[in-house]
Amino acid sequence: MGFVRVAAASPIVVVADCSANVRRMEDVMRQAVGRGVQIIVFPELSITAYTCLDLFASQRLLDAAEEALLRLVANTAGLDLLAVAGAPLRLGNRLINAAVVFRGGEILGVVPKTYLPNSREFQEQRWFSSAADLSEKEAVIGGRPYPMAGGLLFASARATIGVEICEDLWAPVPPGSLMAMAGAEIICNLSASNELTGKHSYRRSLVAQQSARCIAGYVYAAAGAGESTTDLVFAGGSLIAENGIILREAERFSREDSLITADIDLHNLRHDRRVNRSFMQGAQLAGLPRTAIPFELPKRREELKLDRRIDPHPFVPSGAALDERCEEIFNIQIAGLAGRMQHIRAESAVVGVSGGLDSTLALLVTAMTFDALHIPRSRIQGITMPGFGTTSRTYENAVALIRSLGLSLREIPIREACLRHFADIGHDPAEQDVVYENTQARERTQILMDIANRTGGLVVGTGDLSELALGWATFNGDHISMYGVNAGIPKTLVRYLVEWIAANRTDEDAARILTDIAATPISPELIPADENDGIVQKTEELVGPYELHDFFLYHFLRYGATPARIAFLAGIAFEGLYDAAVIRQWLQVFFRRFFAQQYKRNCLPDGPKVGSISISPRGDWRMASDASAREWLKEL
Fold this sequence. Notes:
Nitrilase/N-carbamoyl-D-aminoacid amidohydrolase, Rossmann fold, 6-stranded mixed β-sheet, 19 helices, 20 strands
Protein backbone atom coordinates (compact mmCIF):
# COMPACT_ATOMS: atom_id res chain seq x y z
CA MET A 1 0.00 0.00 0.00
CA GLY A 2 2.98 2.32 -0.37
CA PHE A 3 4.26 2.47 3.21
CA VAL A 4 7.93 2.21 4.24
CA ARG A 5 8.89 1.72 7.88
CA VAL A 6 11.79 3.90 8.99
CA ALA A 7 13.62 4.35 12.28
CA ALA A 8 15.73 7.06 13.87
CA ALA A 9 18.16 5.54 16.38
CA SER A 10 20.15 7.25 19.11
CA PRO A 11 22.23 4.72 21.03
CA ILE A 12 24.20 5.83 24.08
CA VAL A 13 27.71 6.15 22.70
CA VAL A 14 31.06 6.35 24.48
CA VAL A 15 33.31 9.10 23.16
CA ALA A 16 36.17 7.57 21.14
CA ASP A 17 35.24 3.95 22.03
CA CYS A 18 34.38 2.63 18.58
CA SER A 19 34.03 -1.02 19.61
CA ALA A 20 31.52 -0.20 22.34
CA ASN A 21 29.61 2.06 20.01
CA VAL A 22 29.14 -0.46 17.21
CA ARG A 23 28.04 -3.09 19.71
CA ARG A 24 25.26 -0.75 20.82
CA MET A 25 24.42 0.05 17.21
CA GLU A 26 24.23 -3.64 16.33
CA ASP A 27 21.86 -4.26 19.26
CA VAL A 28 19.64 -1.40 18.16
CA MET A 29 19.60 -2.70 14.57
CA ARG A 30 18.40 -6.08 15.83
CA GLN A 31 15.63 -4.37 17.79
CA ALA A 32 14.68 -2.48 14.65
CA VAL A 33 14.41 -5.66 12.60
CA GLY A 34 12.09 -7.05 15.24
CA ARG A 35 9.85 -4.03 14.75
CA GLY A 36 9.77 -4.48 10.99
CA VAL A 37 12.00 -1.49 10.20
CA GLN A 38 13.22 -1.28 6.60
CA ILE A 39 15.49 1.80 6.91
CA ILE A 40 17.38 2.85 10.03
CA VAL A 41 19.37 6.06 10.52
CA PHE A 42 22.03 6.65 13.20
CA PRO A 43 23.38 10.03 14.38
CA GLU A 44 26.32 11.95 12.95
CA LEU A 45 29.72 10.30 13.53
CA SER A 46 27.97 7.59 15.53
CA ILE A 47 30.90 5.15 15.15
CA THR A 48 33.29 7.38 17.09
CA ALA A 49 30.91 9.92 18.69
CA TYR A 50 30.77 13.49 17.46
CA THR A 51 32.63 15.12 20.36
CA CYS A 52 36.04 13.54 19.74
CA LEU A 53 37.41 16.96 18.72
CA ASP A 54 41.17 16.87 18.06
CA LEU A 55 41.18 13.10 18.51
CA PHE A 56 39.95 13.06 14.90
CA ALA A 57 43.58 13.81 14.00
CA SER A 58 44.64 10.60 15.73
CA GLN A 59 45.67 7.74 13.46
CA ARG A 60 44.56 5.26 16.11
CA LEU A 61 41.01 6.63 16.29
CA LEU A 62 40.67 6.64 12.52
CA ASP A 63 41.93 3.06 12.27
CA ALA A 64 39.58 1.97 15.03
CA ALA A 65 36.64 3.72 13.36
CA GLU A 66 37.27 1.99 10.03
CA GLU A 67 37.68 -1.41 11.69
CA ALA A 68 34.53 -0.94 13.76
CA LEU A 69 32.52 0.19 10.74
CA LEU A 70 33.53 -2.89 8.74
CA ARG A 71 32.74 -5.10 11.73
CA LEU A 72 29.28 -3.53 12.07
CA VAL A 73 28.60 -4.10 8.35
CA ALA A 74 29.72 -7.72 8.55
CA ASN A 75 27.94 -8.56 11.80
CA THR A 76 24.61 -7.24 10.54
CA ALA A 77 24.78 -8.97 7.15
CA GLY A 78 21.86 -11.18 8.08
CA LEU A 79 19.61 -8.31 9.14
CA ASP A 80 17.11 -7.35 6.49
CA LEU A 81 17.27 -3.54 6.59
CA LEU A 82 19.10 -0.60 5.06
CA ALA A 83 21.30 1.27 7.55
CA VAL A 84 22.91 4.72 7.50
CA ALA A 85 25.71 5.32 10.01
CA GLY A 86 28.11 8.20 10.61
CA ALA A 87 31.89 7.85 10.62
CA PRO A 88 35.08 9.85 9.96
CA LEU A 89 36.72 8.61 6.77
CA ARG A 90 40.14 9.30 5.30
CA LEU A 91 40.19 10.52 1.72
CA GLY A 92 43.80 10.86 0.64
CA ASN A 93 45.13 13.85 2.56
CA ARG A 94 41.68 14.84 3.75
CA LEU A 95 39.17 13.71 6.34
CA ILE A 96 35.43 13.70 5.73
CA ASN A 97 32.45 13.60 8.05
CA ALA A 98 30.59 10.83 6.26
CA ALA A 99 27.34 8.92 6.18
CA VAL A 100 27.92 5.30 5.19
CA VAL A 101 24.96 3.43 3.69
CA PHE A 102 25.01 -0.37 3.91
CA ARG A 103 22.77 -3.41 3.67
CA GLY A 104 23.19 -7.17 3.74
CA GLY A 105 26.89 -7.05 4.61
CA GLU A 106 27.73 -4.67 1.75
CA ILE A 107 28.53 -0.94 1.76
CA LEU A 108 26.49 0.74 -0.97
CA GLY A 109 27.95 4.24 -0.90
CA VAL A 110 29.28 7.19 1.07
CA VAL A 111 27.84 10.71 1.43
CA PRO A 112 30.19 13.43 2.80
CA LYS A 113 28.82 16.36 4.78
CA THR A 114 28.53 19.50 2.67
CA TYR A 115 28.07 22.36 5.14
CA LEU A 116 30.62 22.35 7.97
CA PRO A 117 29.80 24.73 10.85
CA ASN A 118 32.78 26.71 12.07
CA SER A 119 31.60 29.16 14.70
CA ARG A 120 30.99 29.25 18.44
CA GLU A 121 30.96 25.69 19.79
CA PHE A 122 31.36 24.09 16.32
CA GLN A 123 34.80 23.91 14.70
CA GLU A 124 34.35 21.19 12.07
CA GLN A 125 36.55 22.84 9.44
CA ARG A 126 39.43 22.27 11.82
CA TRP A 127 39.22 18.54 10.97
CA PHE A 128 36.93 17.88 7.99
CA SER A 129 36.62 18.83 4.33
CA SER A 130 33.30 19.66 2.67
CA ALA A 131 31.75 17.57 -0.09
CA ALA A 132 31.85 20.74 -2.19
CA ASP A 133 35.67 20.70 -2.08
CA LEU A 134 36.11 17.10 -3.20
CA SER A 135 36.99 15.92 -6.67
CA GLU A 136 37.15 12.23 -5.77
CA LYS A 137 34.22 10.01 -6.73
CA GLU A 138 35.09 7.09 -4.50
CA ALA A 139 35.95 6.47 -0.87
CA VAL A 140 38.22 3.58 0.09
CA ILE A 141 37.13 1.58 3.14
CA GLY A 142 39.00 -1.59 4.12
CA GLY A 143 40.94 -1.44 0.87
CA ARG A 144 37.82 -1.38 -1.32
CA PRO A 145 36.47 1.63 -3.24
CA TYR A 146 32.84 2.68 -2.85
CA PRO A 147 30.79 5.36 -4.67
CA MET A 148 30.99 8.71 -2.91
CA ALA A 149 29.36 12.09 -3.55
CA GLY A 150 27.40 14.80 -1.86
CA GLY A 151 23.80 14.26 -2.86
CA LEU A 152 24.32 10.60 -3.74
CA LEU A 153 20.95 8.83 -3.99
CA PHE A 154 20.01 5.26 -3.17
CA ALA A 155 17.17 3.96 -5.32
CA SER A 156 15.02 0.86 -5.14
CA ALA A 157 11.86 0.04 -7.06
CA ARG A 158 9.77 1.12 -4.07
CA ALA A 159 11.68 4.04 -2.51
CA THR A 160 14.51 6.48 -3.23
CA ILE A 161 16.66 7.66 -0.34
CA GLY A 162 18.76 10.80 0.07
CA VAL A 163 21.21 11.58 2.87
CA GLU A 164 22.34 14.82 4.46
CA ILE A 165 24.22 15.52 7.68
CA CYS A 166 23.21 17.90 10.48
CA GLU A 167 24.23 21.42 9.40
CA ASP A 168 23.19 20.61 5.82
CA LEU A 169 19.60 21.03 6.98
CA TRP A 170 20.28 24.54 8.35
CA ALA A 171 21.72 25.88 5.06
CA PRO A 172 19.67 28.28 2.89
CA VAL A 173 19.45 25.59 0.20
CA PRO A 174 19.80 22.22 1.96
CA PRO A 175 21.22 19.35 -0.11
CA GLY A 176 18.01 17.48 0.71
CA SER A 177 16.01 19.98 -1.36
CA LEU A 178 18.08 19.22 -4.44
CA MET A 179 17.97 15.49 -3.73
CA ALA A 180 14.19 15.64 -3.47
CA MET A 181 13.96 17.24 -6.90
CA ALA A 182 16.26 14.51 -8.20
CA GLY A 183 13.88 11.85 -6.88
CA ALA A 184 14.65 11.31 -3.18
CA GLU A 185 11.42 10.51 -1.34
CA ILE A 186 12.91 9.95 2.10
CA ILE A 187 15.67 12.23 3.40
CA CYS A 188 17.87 10.84 6.16
CA ASN A 189 19.69 13.31 8.41
CA LEU A 190 22.49 12.16 10.70
CA SER A 191 22.77 14.86 13.33
CA ALA A 192 24.76 15.93 16.38
CA SER A 193 23.06 19.14 17.44
CA ASN A 194 23.56 20.20 21.03
CA GLU A 195 20.81 21.52 23.29
CA LEU A 196 20.24 25.21 24.01
CA THR A 197 17.19 26.97 25.37
CA GLY A 198 14.61 27.13 22.59
CA LYS A 199 16.80 25.33 20.06
CA HIS A 200 14.80 22.10 19.94
CA SER A 201 11.58 23.95 19.09
CA TYR A 202 13.33 25.66 16.20
CA ARG A 203 14.94 22.39 15.09
CA ARG A 204 11.59 20.61 15.22
CA SER A 205 10.03 23.33 13.08
CA LEU A 206 12.93 23.12 10.64
CA VAL A 207 12.50 19.37 10.18
CA ALA A 208 8.76 19.70 9.68
CA GLN A 209 9.16 22.55 7.20
CA GLN A 210 11.88 20.79 5.23
CA SER A 211 9.74 17.67 4.90
CA ALA A 212 6.90 19.90 3.65
CA ARG A 213 9.08 21.86 1.24
CA CYS A 214 10.49 18.64 -0.20
CA ILE A 215 7.16 16.77 -0.07
CA ALA A 216 9.17 13.98 1.50
CA GLY A 217 9.62 11.78 4.50
CA TYR A 218 12.36 13.05 6.81
CA VAL A 219 14.24 10.90 9.32
CA TYR A 220 16.31 12.96 11.74
CA ALA A 221 18.57 10.90 14.02
CA ALA A 222 19.91 13.03 16.89
CA ALA A 223 22.97 12.39 19.04
CA GLY A 224 22.03 11.42 22.58
CA ALA A 225 23.24 11.76 26.16
CA GLY A 226 26.47 9.82 25.59
CA GLU A 227 27.82 12.76 23.57
CA SER A 228 27.40 15.18 26.48
CA THR A 229 30.87 16.26 27.56
CA THR A 230 32.87 19.33 28.55
CA ASP A 231 30.67 22.35 27.67
CA LEU A 232 27.99 20.68 25.54
CA VAL A 233 24.82 18.71 26.30
CA PHE A 234 23.09 16.46 23.77
CA ALA A 235 19.58 15.12 24.30
CA GLY A 236 18.72 12.66 21.52
CA GLY A 237 15.74 14.57 20.14
CA SER A 238 15.21 12.38 17.09
CA LEU A 239 12.30 13.16 14.77
CA ILE A 240 10.41 11.50 11.93
CA ALA A 241 8.35 13.80 9.72
CA GLU A 242 6.26 13.55 6.58
CA ASN A 243 5.19 16.46 4.41
CA GLY A 244 5.07 18.96 7.24
CA ILE A 245 3.75 16.65 9.96
CA ILE A 246 5.86 15.25 12.81
CA LEU A 247 4.95 11.57 12.98
CA ARG A 248 7.22 10.55 15.86
CA GLU A 249 9.66 12.20 18.23
CA ALA A 250 11.99 10.72 20.78
CA GLU A 251 11.98 11.49 24.48
CA ARG A 252 14.79 13.95 25.07
CA PHE A 253 17.42 13.62 27.81
CA SER A 254 16.93 9.88 28.10
CA ARG A 255 19.85 7.88 29.51
CA GLU A 256 18.87 4.80 27.47
CA ASP A 257 19.23 3.81 23.83
CA SER A 258 16.47 5.44 21.77
CA LEU A 259 14.66 3.97 18.77
CA ILE A 260 11.62 5.63 17.22
CA THR A 261 9.79 4.19 14.22
CA ALA A 262 7.07 5.30 11.83
CA ASP A 263 5.60 4.34 8.49
CA ILE A 264 6.23 6.86 5.72
CA ASP A 265 3.40 7.04 3.16
CA LEU A 266 5.13 7.15 -0.22
CA HIS A 267 1.83 6.85 -2.06
CA ASN A 268 0.63 10.21 -0.76
CA LEU A 269 4.02 11.87 -1.23
CA ARG A 270 4.19 10.77 -4.87
CA HIS A 271 0.66 11.99 -5.49
CA ASP A 272 1.43 15.43 -4.09
CA ARG A 273 4.60 15.72 -6.14
CA ARG A 274 2.74 14.86 -9.33
CA VAL A 275 -0.05 17.37 -8.80
CA ASN A 276 2.27 20.14 -7.55
CA ARG A 277 3.42 21.48 -10.89
CA SER A 278 5.95 23.87 -9.32
CA PHE A 279 7.81 21.05 -7.56
CA MET A 280 10.17 20.42 -10.48
CA GLN A 281 10.45 23.98 -11.75
CA GLY A 282 14.07 25.07 -11.72
CA ALA A 283 15.34 21.48 -11.85
CA GLN A 284 17.80 22.42 -14.59
CA LEU A 285 19.33 25.10 -12.39
CA ALA A 286 19.85 22.50 -9.66
CA GLY A 287 22.11 20.44 -11.93
CA LEU A 288 19.91 17.35 -11.97
CA PRO A 289 19.99 14.38 -12.37
CA ARG A 290 22.24 12.88 -9.69
CA THR A 291 23.90 9.49 -9.39
CA ALA A 292 21.66 6.84 -7.85
CA ILE A 293 22.97 3.64 -6.28
CA PRO A 294 20.53 0.75 -6.75
CA PHE A 295 19.48 -1.29 -3.74
CA GLU A 296 16.67 -3.64 -2.82
CA LEU A 297 14.34 -2.32 -0.15
CA PRO A 298 13.60 -5.01 2.45
CA LYS A 299 10.14 -6.49 2.06
CA ARG A 300 7.49 -5.50 4.53
CA ARG A 301 6.19 -8.32 6.70
CA GLU A 302 2.49 -8.85 6.06
CA GLU A 303 1.61 -9.47 9.71
CA LEU A 304 2.84 -6.03 10.81
CA LYS A 305 0.26 -3.47 11.80
CA LEU A 306 0.65 0.01 10.40
CA ASP A 307 2.96 2.12 12.58
CA ARG A 308 0.97 5.34 12.34
CA ARG A 309 -2.51 6.55 13.15
CA ILE A 310 -5.07 6.77 10.38
CA ASP A 311 -7.50 9.50 11.33
CA PRO A 312 -11.11 8.32 10.86
CA HIS A 313 -12.24 11.94 10.61
CA PRO A 314 -9.59 13.68 8.48
CA PHE A 315 -11.69 16.82 8.00
CA VAL A 316 -12.29 17.45 11.69
CA PRO A 317 -9.91 19.75 13.62
CA SER A 318 -8.07 18.18 16.52
CA GLY A 319 -5.35 18.87 19.03
CA ALA A 320 -4.24 22.03 20.74
CA ALA A 321 -5.07 24.23 17.74
CA LEU A 322 -8.75 23.29 17.90
CA ASP A 323 -10.13 26.71 18.83
CA GLU A 324 -7.93 28.47 16.31
CA ARG A 325 -8.97 26.10 13.53
CA CYS A 326 -12.67 26.54 14.23
CA GLU A 327 -12.32 30.31 14.28
CA GLU A 328 -10.43 30.17 11.01
CA ILE A 329 -13.10 28.05 9.33
CA PHE A 330 -15.84 30.48 10.36
CA ASN A 331 -13.77 33.46 9.30
CA ILE A 332 -13.27 31.99 5.82
CA GLN A 333 -17.01 31.37 5.45
CA ILE A 334 -17.87 34.82 6.77
CA ALA A 335 -15.31 36.56 4.57
CA GLY A 336 -16.63 34.79 1.48
CA LEU A 337 -20.26 35.66 2.15
CA ALA A 338 -19.42 39.23 3.16
CA GLY A 339 -17.52 39.79 -0.07
CA ARG A 340 -20.41 38.52 -2.18
CA MET A 341 -22.98 40.66 -0.33
CA GLN A 342 -20.89 43.80 -0.68
CA HIS A 343 -20.23 43.16 -4.36
CA ILE A 344 -23.89 42.77 -5.31
CA ARG A 345 -25.01 45.35 -2.73
CA ALA A 346 -27.40 42.92 -1.08
CA GLU A 347 -29.65 44.49 1.51
CA SER A 348 -30.76 41.28 3.15
CA ALA A 349 -30.19 37.55 3.23
CA VAL A 350 -32.60 34.63 3.03
CA VAL A 351 -31.91 31.25 4.59
CA GLY A 352 -34.20 28.22 4.52
CA VAL A 353 -34.05 26.74 8.01
CA SER A 354 -35.07 23.12 8.45
CA GLY A 355 -33.81 22.42 11.95
CA GLY A 356 -31.03 20.27 10.50
CA LEU A 357 -27.25 20.60 10.66
CA ASP A 358 -26.53 22.29 7.33
CA SER A 359 -29.10 25.06 7.53
CA THR A 360 -28.10 25.65 11.16
CA LEU A 361 -24.47 26.23 10.23
CA ALA A 362 -25.45 28.43 7.27
CA LEU A 363 -27.68 30.50 9.54
CA LEU A 364 -24.90 30.96 12.12
CA VAL A 365 -22.44 32.03 9.41
CA THR A 366 -24.96 34.48 7.98
CA ALA A 367 -25.62 36.01 11.40
CA MET A 368 -21.89 36.48 12.01
CA THR A 369 -21.47 37.96 8.53
CA PHE A 370 -24.10 40.59 9.23
CA ASP A 371 -22.34 41.39 12.50
CA ALA A 372 -19.07 41.84 10.60
CA LEU A 373 -20.77 44.13 8.05
CA HIS A 374 -22.59 46.08 10.81
CA ILE A 375 -25.96 45.19 9.33
CA PRO A 376 -28.82 44.47 11.75
CA ARG A 377 -29.53 40.76 12.07
CA SER A 378 -33.22 41.54 11.61
CA ARG A 379 -32.48 41.82 7.89
CA ILE A 380 -31.79 38.11 7.77
CA GLN A 381 -34.95 36.20 7.00
CA GLY A 382 -34.96 32.73 8.45
CA ILE A 383 -37.70 30.91 6.61
CA THR A 384 -39.16 27.65 7.79
CA MET A 385 -41.20 25.76 5.20
CA PRO A 386 -42.96 22.77 6.78
CA GLY A 387 -43.67 19.97 4.32
CA PHE A 388 -45.04 16.45 4.33
CA GLY A 389 -42.16 15.03 6.37
CA THR A 390 -41.44 17.87 8.79
CA THR A 391 -41.48 16.67 12.40
CA SER A 392 -42.28 18.78 15.40
CA ARG A 393 -38.73 18.33 16.71
CA THR A 394 -37.03 19.89 13.69
CA TYR A 395 -39.74 22.52 13.24
CA GLU A 396 -39.52 23.69 16.83
CA ASN A 397 -35.71 23.73 16.74
CA ALA A 398 -35.75 25.80 13.54
CA VAL A 399 -38.14 28.37 14.99
CA ALA A 400 -36.32 28.54 18.33
CA LEU A 401 -32.93 28.95 16.62
CA ILE A 402 -34.10 31.80 14.40
CA ARG A 403 -35.56 33.63 17.38
CA SER A 404 -32.52 33.02 19.61
CA LEU A 405 -30.26 34.65 17.00
CA GLY A 406 -32.48 37.74 16.70
CA LEU A 407 -33.41 37.15 13.06
CA SER A 408 -36.68 37.74 11.23
CA LEU A 409 -38.82 34.60 11.28
CA ARG A 410 -41.19 33.70 8.49
CA GLU A 411 -43.18 30.49 8.10
CA ILE A 412 -44.45 29.37 4.70
CA PRO A 413 -45.99 25.86 4.64
CA ILE A 414 -45.51 24.13 1.28
CA ARG A 415 -48.01 21.25 1.49
CA GLU A 416 -50.85 22.92 -0.39
CA ALA A 417 -48.56 24.31 -3.10
CA CYS A 418 -47.08 20.85 -3.67
CA LEU A 419 -50.51 19.23 -3.83
CA ARG A 420 -51.58 21.78 -6.44
CA HIS A 421 -48.44 21.01 -8.40
CA PHE A 422 -49.11 17.26 -8.20
CA ALA A 423 -52.57 17.90 -9.62
CA ASP A 424 -51.14 20.07 -12.40
CA ILE A 425 -48.69 17.38 -13.54
CA GLY A 426 -51.00 14.44 -12.86
CA HIS A 427 -49.00 12.86 -10.04
CA ASP A 428 -50.68 10.79 -7.35
CA PRO A 429 -49.48 12.12 -3.96
CA ALA A 430 -49.86 8.63 -2.53
CA GLU A 431 -46.89 7.62 -4.72
CA GLN A 432 -44.00 8.84 -2.56
CA ASP A 433 -41.33 8.60 -5.22
CA VAL A 434 -38.61 10.95 -6.49
CA VAL A 435 -41.25 13.31 -7.93
CA TYR A 436 -42.93 13.50 -4.52
CA GLU A 437 -39.62 14.31 -2.83
CA ASN A 438 -38.08 16.66 -5.39
CA THR A 439 -41.26 18.70 -5.77
CA GLN A 440 -40.86 19.78 -2.15
CA ALA A 441 -37.20 20.70 -2.59
CA ARG A 442 -37.90 22.75 -5.70
CA GLU A 443 -40.90 24.47 -4.14
CA ARG A 444 -38.74 25.56 -1.21
CA THR A 445 -36.00 26.86 -3.49
CA GLN A 446 -38.52 28.85 -5.53
CA ILE A 447 -39.86 30.47 -2.37
CA LEU A 448 -36.38 31.43 -1.17
CA MET A 449 -35.37 32.88 -4.54
CA ASP A 450 -38.53 34.92 -4.96
CA ILE A 451 -38.39 36.35 -1.44
CA ALA A 452 -34.75 37.29 -2.01
CA ASN A 453 -35.76 39.09 -5.19
CA ARG A 454 -38.53 40.96 -3.37
CA THR A 455 -36.23 42.11 -0.58
CA GLY A 456 -33.11 42.85 -2.57
CA GLY A 457 -31.43 39.96 -0.79
CA LEU A 458 -29.27 36.94 -1.37
CA VAL A 459 -30.18 33.26 -0.91
CA VAL A 460 -27.55 31.61 1.26
CA GLY A 461 -27.07 27.99 0.27
CA THR A 462 -26.97 25.29 2.91
CA GLY A 463 -25.74 22.19 1.04
CA ASP A 464 -22.45 20.74 2.27
CA LEU A 465 -19.45 19.12 0.59
CA SER A 466 -20.50 15.55 1.41
CA GLU A 467 -23.96 15.97 -0.10
CA LEU A 468 -22.50 17.54 -3.23
CA ALA A 469 -19.98 14.71 -3.59
CA LEU A 470 -22.71 12.08 -3.38
CA GLY A 471 -25.18 14.11 -5.43
CA TRP A 472 -27.57 14.02 -2.45
CA ALA A 473 -29.30 17.21 -3.55
CA THR A 474 -32.24 17.98 -5.81
CA PHE A 475 -31.10 19.39 -9.15
CA ASN A 476 -32.50 22.91 -9.45
CA GLY A 477 -33.73 22.56 -5.88
CA ASP A 478 -31.54 22.73 -2.78
CA HIS A 479 -28.69 22.23 -5.25
CA ILE A 480 -29.00 25.93 -6.18
CA SER A 481 -28.38 29.14 -4.22
CA MET A 482 -26.76 32.54 -4.70
CA TYR A 483 -23.78 31.66 -2.51
CA GLY A 484 -23.12 28.29 -0.84
CA VAL A 485 -21.36 28.96 2.45
CA ASN A 486 -21.10 25.23 3.28
CA ALA A 487 -19.81 24.10 -0.11
CA GLY A 488 -16.35 23.35 1.31
CA ILE A 489 -17.52 21.82 4.62
CA PRO A 490 -18.07 18.02 4.81
CA LYS A 491 -20.89 16.64 6.94
CA THR A 492 -18.65 15.39 9.76
CA LEU A 493 -17.17 18.86 10.10
CA VAL A 494 -20.59 20.54 9.90
CA ARG A 495 -21.74 18.48 12.87
CA TYR A 496 -18.56 19.22 14.77
CA LEU A 497 -18.73 22.96 14.13
CA VAL A 498 -22.31 23.14 15.35
CA GLU A 499 -21.34 21.22 18.51
CA TRP A 500 -18.30 23.47 18.98
CA ILE A 501 -20.41 26.62 18.71
CA ALA A 502 -22.86 25.18 21.22
CA ALA A 503 -20.05 24.56 23.68
CA ASN A 504 -18.04 27.74 23.13
CA ARG A 505 -19.93 30.57 21.48
CA THR A 506 -23.53 30.68 22.68
CA ASP A 507 -25.64 31.20 25.76
CA GLU A 508 -27.30 28.33 27.59
CA ASP A 509 -30.60 28.47 25.69
CA ALA A 510 -28.99 28.57 22.25
CA ALA A 511 -26.55 25.83 23.25
CA ARG A 512 -29.46 23.59 24.18
CA ILE A 513 -31.06 24.10 20.76
CA LEU A 514 -27.80 23.52 18.88
CA THR A 515 -26.99 20.40 20.89
CA ASP A 516 -30.39 18.90 20.05
CA ILE A 517 -29.97 19.78 16.37
CA ALA A 518 -26.57 18.04 16.33
CA ALA A 519 -28.19 14.95 17.91
CA THR A 520 -31.09 14.81 15.42
CA PRO A 521 -30.84 12.08 12.75
CA ILE A 522 -29.81 13.49 9.39
CA SER A 523 -32.82 13.56 7.07
CA PRO A 524 -34.27 15.61 4.20
CA GLU A 525 -37.69 15.01 5.83
CA LEU A 526 -39.53 14.56 2.55
CA ILE A 527 -41.47 11.44 3.60
CA PRO A 528 -44.23 11.72 6.26
CA ALA A 529 -43.25 10.99 9.86
CA ASP A 530 -44.25 7.82 11.67
CA GLU A 531 -47.15 7.51 14.09
CA ASN A 532 -44.97 8.90 16.89
CA ASP A 533 -43.92 11.96 14.88
CA GLY A 534 -40.51 10.39 14.39
CA ILE A 535 -38.23 10.79 11.38
CA VAL A 536 -38.73 7.94 8.90
CA GLN A 537 -36.31 8.97 6.16
CA LYS A 538 -32.79 8.72 7.62
CA THR A 539 -30.13 9.69 5.12
CA GLU A 540 -27.35 7.52 6.52
CA GLU A 541 -29.53 4.41 6.22
CA LEU A 542 -30.03 5.21 2.54
CA VAL A 543 -26.59 6.34 1.33
CA GLY A 544 -24.36 5.15 4.18
CA PRO A 545 -22.59 6.67 7.17
CA TYR A 546 -21.27 10.13 6.42
CA GLU A 547 -18.13 9.48 8.45
CA LEU A 548 -17.26 6.72 5.97
CA HIS A 549 -18.14 8.79 2.91
CA ASP A 550 -16.11 11.73 4.19
CA PHE A 551 -13.16 9.40 4.76
CA PHE A 552 -13.55 7.98 1.24
CA LEU A 553 -13.88 11.46 -0.26
CA TYR A 554 -10.79 12.78 1.50
CA HIS A 555 -8.47 9.98 0.41
CA PHE A 556 -9.88 9.80 -3.12
CA LEU A 557 -9.67 13.52 -3.89
CA ARG A 558 -6.77 14.58 -1.70
CA TYR A 559 -4.40 11.74 -2.57
CA GLY A 560 -5.91 9.96 -5.58
CA ALA A 561 -6.09 6.74 -3.57
CA THR A 562 -7.31 3.57 -5.23
CA PRO A 563 -10.43 1.81 -3.88
CA ALA A 564 -8.28 -1.00 -2.49
CA ARG A 565 -6.06 1.45 -0.63
CA ILE A 566 -9.06 3.40 0.70
CA ALA A 567 -10.62 0.17 1.97
CA PHE A 568 -7.31 -0.81 3.59
CA LEU A 569 -6.96 2.53 5.37
CA ALA A 570 -10.62 2.60 6.40
CA GLY A 571 -10.25 -0.86 7.90
CA ILE A 572 -7.52 0.52 10.18
CA ALA A 573 -9.23 3.82 10.94
CA PHE A 574 -12.61 2.27 11.78
CA GLU A 575 -11.43 -0.99 13.33
CA GLY A 576 -14.09 -2.31 15.69
CA LEU A 577 -16.76 -0.02 14.23
CA TYR A 578 -17.21 -1.21 10.64
CA ASP A 579 -16.06 -4.55 9.25
CA ALA A 580 -14.45 -5.01 5.84
CA ALA A 581 -17.70 -6.05 4.14
CA VAL A 582 -19.57 -2.95 5.34
CA ILE A 583 -16.72 -0.67 4.29
CA ARG A 584 -16.62 -2.16 0.80
CA GLN A 585 -20.42 -1.99 0.49
CA TRP A 586 -20.52 1.75 1.15
CA LEU A 587 -17.34 2.35 -0.84
CA GLN A 588 -19.11 0.91 -3.87
CA VAL A 589 -22.03 3.26 -3.21
CA PHE A 590 -19.61 6.17 -2.92
CA PHE A 591 -17.94 5.54 -6.27
CA ARG A 592 -21.20 4.86 -8.10
CA ARG A 593 -22.79 8.05 -6.80
CA PHE A 594 -19.67 10.20 -7.13
CA PHE A 595 -19.23 9.37 -10.81
CA ALA A 596 -22.95 9.48 -11.65
CA GLN A 597 -23.56 12.89 -10.05
CA GLN A 598 -20.79 14.98 -11.59
CA TYR A 599 -23.30 16.85 -13.77
CA LYS A 600 -24.71 18.44 -10.62
CA ARG A 601 -21.28 19.55 -9.45
CA ASN A 602 -20.49 21.08 -12.82
CA CYS A 603 -23.06 23.82 -12.19
CA LEU A 604 -22.58 24.52 -8.50
CA PRO A 605 -23.04 28.02 -7.10
CA ASP A 606 -19.95 29.83 -5.83
CA GLY A 607 -18.80 28.96 -2.33
CA PRO A 608 -15.63 29.30 -0.26
CA LYS A 609 -12.92 26.68 -0.31
CA VAL A 610 -12.20 26.01 3.36
CA GLY A 611 -9.84 23.03 3.54
CA SER A 612 -7.68 20.90 1.28
CA ILE A 613 -10.64 19.49 -0.66
CA SER A 614 -12.98 21.27 -3.03
CA ILE A 615 -15.27 19.87 -5.71
CA SER A 616 -16.01 23.17 -7.41
CA PRO A 617 -15.57 22.88 -11.20
CA ARG A 618 -13.83 26.27 -11.00
CA GLY A 619 -11.37 25.08 -8.37
CA ASP A 620 -9.92 21.72 -7.45
CA TRP A 621 -12.03 19.24 -9.36
CA ARG A 622 -12.68 19.12 -13.09
CA MET A 623 -14.26 15.91 -14.32
CA ALA A 624 -16.26 14.82 -17.31
CA SER A 625 -19.93 14.44 -16.42
CA ASP A 626 -20.13 11.06 -18.13
CA ALA A 627 -16.90 9.46 -16.88
CA SER A 628 -17.25 5.76 -16.05
CA ALA A 629 -16.68 4.34 -12.56
CA ARG A 630 -16.01 0.85 -13.92
CA GLU A 631 -12.24 0.78 -13.32
CA TRP A 632 -12.71 1.90 -9.70
CA LEU A 633 -15.52 -0.55 -9.00
CA LYS A 634 -13.45 -3.43 -10.42
CA GLU A 635 -11.19 -3.28 -7.34
CA LEU A 636 -14.16 -3.83 -5.07
